[in-house]
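B., you asked whether I could sanity-check this one before it goes into the benchmark set. Here's the sequence:
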Amino acid sequence: MPKNKTHSGAKKRFTLTGTGKVKYGHAMNVHKFEEKSGSRKRRVSVDGILAAPDAKRVKKLLGK
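And here's what the prediction gave me:
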């Protein structure tokens, strides 16, 4: 049986933590910061942890 390939889009967007959780970066954190409020910028700058059902699907895409 051939090996499964890692999903190219998933490997650019998600990383696995040491404990096996899936970490992702929030959207809207690249440019046009002058029109965004400070609280919004602080909120999106922090990486998030995916919920367990979503993490299971992403781990499969990452080949884990």
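One thing to flag: Residues 52-62 form the longest helix (11 residues). Otherwise nothing jumped out at me.
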